[in-house]
Amino acid sequence: MPERLGPPLDAPLFERVALVGLGLIGSSIARAARHMNLARAIVAIDADERVVARVRELGIADEATTDAAAGVKDADLVILCVPVGVCGRVAEALRPGLKPGCIVSDVGSVKASVVAQVQPHLPEGVHFVPAHPVAGTEHSGPDAGFSTLFHNRWCILTPPEGTDEGAVERVRAFWTAMGSNVEIMTAQHHDLVLAITSHVPHLIAYNIVGTAADLETVTQGEVIKFSAGGFRDFTRIAASDPTMWRDVFLHNREAVLEMLGRLNEDIALLARAIRWGEGDKLFDLFTRTRAIRRGIISSGQETPEPDFGRRREDKA
Amino acid sequence: MPERLGPPLDAPLFERVALVGLGLIGSSIARAARHMNLARAIVAIDADERVVARVRELGIADEATTDAAAGVKDADLVILCVPVGVCGRVAEALRPGLKPGCIVSDVGSVKASVVAQVQPHLPEGVHFVPAHPVAGTEHSGPDAGFSTLFHNRWCILTPPEGTDEGAVERVRAFWTAMGSNVEIMTAQHHDLVLAITSHVPHLIAYNIVGTAADLETVTQGEVIKFSAGGFRDFTRIAASDPTMWRDVFLHNREAVLEMLGRLNEDIALLARAIRWGEGDKLFDLFTRTRAIRRGIISSGQETPEPDFGRRREDKA
Predict the structure, then answer these.
(1) A189-305 falls under which CATH superfamily?
(2) I want to staple B51 with a disulfide (CB 3.0 to 4.6 A). Which of A174, A258, B46, B151 is the partner?
């Protein structure tokens, strides 16, 4: 699975791309867009002055400012890379600077709520193409980003009905150039799919790590020492950005609670099988789940190295 | 975190080590023990003729046989590396071959049940030192093993009260030489600690992967495509050996059900916080769990690379 970007484009796709929020995702887009020559100029906008200063030090954008309305001026693509809970407020703040014909997009992990929050603030003649790159790491901030983050990952677009097709195609081309595979679906379906593939796994990981920390019979030192038995893998996603994830759960409430309800039904069956010694039921499930892992590996969403390749270099 | 074994010992710790069951763990012990010169001879015993043939091809043992009683003859260390559900039966089968003074150990992920199953079959003068190396990958079989599997991992010994101290020290030396850190605790405490750090995480991973496969609103193809959002990490441990894990749950029933009950209480609180929009409660938990991740990394049980280093080589 090569993780390299292709050669840069001969001519940029956009004149001026404004990125609002320079965390892991925003700063990765900045790096990838520059590397691939996707914009003649990249403007970094962040409400946090320290982030703006750091972006200047890193040199990953052509301009950097805390002023949203000024920053988006003349941009033909504006991407909101902020927690989904503040999308509406940010859209309102940058509205005065948006030029007619501009495309506004985002990278939020929830889509129906973002559409509801952002759309009312966009003037006539501005195109809204919501996007969600399904990629990330457990690290946050402008230093955590890297240009290959989106390579071989999916990016889901959820344009509301009636969105200008040319605008959708330009956003698609932008993500394709950064190495992503683009899929289009409704915001509602997106929120359901991501609830099970991303949101609920995060909630469960947060939960088990929290529960383990509270036990009175097992010390936290023991939990840490013996984490290699499986717990450790859960802690990676439970180390993800707290603000981002709080907003995801609050803004995809129905789908998350629905999926959680289903998991609870199924775990009750497993608990019953354990209590009554029904080994066959356990064995059948455990065999079935192995096949799904193989599907993920063969689809290129995972490497086949054992233990995530933690010991790859010197497997003896 | 170096993952290299040290130089081999000048003189072997044991004359003859018999390994019963040459899966991931047994075959890793064979490789590490030979690499470190821990035994003058290593005997591989497996009930499956194909495994015995494969062990011969791999050349990871000095002798290989399907005959348990003959294989353990003259061994001064016998290690059961079989699913915990068959420990008693295997101990019964090899009993006629055990020589006085021999040490019997195991590698089971559950300890109280193994003690209860194995001890009645051991003749007077044979020492029983149960062990659990907290290490593994999602792969199985003699080809999956490697000599550094136990390096920098914990191995827990749970000698029953009154066990010969010399025997305990020899088993400790064996694991220390393979790079493990050894800890001693009661079988009961072990089973509680591992329930939360290993058994319940596996059960939850199996459960979510199974539930996702059964959804009628989201296709399995979508689950696989968009797994990079978090789900993917769960599938690794849900790809572990079905027989081994079935036995773990059936033989650590009380602790697993107890820990599962606690998780359910805590997830109910989280679900309620989501339903009522209590963002602060979510944020507080998510902040706390980040700290635990840092503890695991600083204790050397994990590498700090983002996303398990999946893109380590060409992070740009």
Answers:
(1) 6-phosphogluconate dehydrogenase C-terminal like domain (1.10.3660.10)
(2) B46
